[in-house]
Amino acid sequence: MKPLARAIAWGGLLAGTGDLVFALGYYGMKLKVFQNVAAGLIGREGAYAGGAATFALGVGLHYAIALTWAALFCLAGQRLPGLLRQAGVAGAAFGLVVYLGMNCVVLPLSALHTRAWPLRLDVAVLAAHALLFGLPIALAARRCLLGAPARG
Hints:
Blueprint: H1 3-27, H2 31-42, H3 44-49, H4 52-79, H5 82-85, H6 87-109, H7 123-146
Helix pairs in contact: 1-4, 1-7, 2-4, 4-7, 6-7
């Protein structure tokens, strides 16, 4: 597998899993957590009526979104290698960019038609985006695109 594809795959899978674990822990172990993700594509009524099938659709969409964000970071990191060299800061900042992008662009344009403003500023959710979403993407990108960090 080429380094770019490996960086996107690892970054997306790690970020998606970190965010999935956070969401289930923070919002509760309920089908509705990921049915909400499916609702962005098929609407609330269909998503909530679909049971386990729309939960699975939501999980699949969740990982597709995580892989897409990982691809954006990795492509940016190839053009701006400083993002890879400063992966900790860049990753945390990228997680916050993802939070803003999802809440101000993606969700308002989805079938949910969520309002972008006023933006809900929840410290736990912001920290999760920075540390469990953006950071794993950046660290995976650095590892795969620049090689293992120097030790010592």
